[in-house]
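Troubleshooting log. The previous structure file for this entry was overwritten by mistake, so regenerating from the original sequence record. Sequence copied from the archived sheet and checked twice against the printout by T.R.
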Amino acid sequence: MATQTAERGAEKEQERGQELTRRGGELESERGLTTIADGVVAKVVGLATREVPGVHDLGGAPSRALSSVTSRVGVGDERTRGVSVEVGRKEAAADLTIVIEYGESIPRVTTEVRENVIRRVEGLCGLKVTEVNVAVNDLHFPGDGTESGGARVE
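Regenerated output below.
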C-alpha cells in the first residue's frame, strides 16, 4: 500500500514537472510570470558563442570597427555585437555573425556554437530555443595585427 502511494506521488510530481515544461518551465506559474529582456538573452548568446574554441570574434567588420570606437568612450556592449535575438514568453531565436580562426573547421565550429547557445539559453533563461542561425563573414589569420590595436604606421 505504501509503495502504491509513493508511486502515485511520484507520478503526480512528474505530471506537475511536465505541466511546468509545457507552460514554459518555471517562467510561468500560478504565482506569476517572469519575463526576460531581449538584451539579457543577447548577452547570454554572445557569451556562449565566445566560449566555443575557434570563434575569434562576433560581428561584421563595420560593427567591429564601430564597437572599438564606442568601447573607448564607454558606450555600447561588446557582448552583444553580432547578435540579434527574438524573445517571446516561452521561446527565443538568435542570429549570429561570427569570425572564425583560420584552420578551424567551419561546420564543426558553427555546430558547436549552435549547441552551446541552445544549452546556455535554455539552461540560464528557461526559454526554448527554436533556431540559431550562424553567418560566418570572415576568417582571422594569426598575425593580422588585430590583437595589437595599435597604429599600422608611425
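The helical segments are 2-22, 38-50, 61-72, 106-125. Archived copy saved in two places this time.
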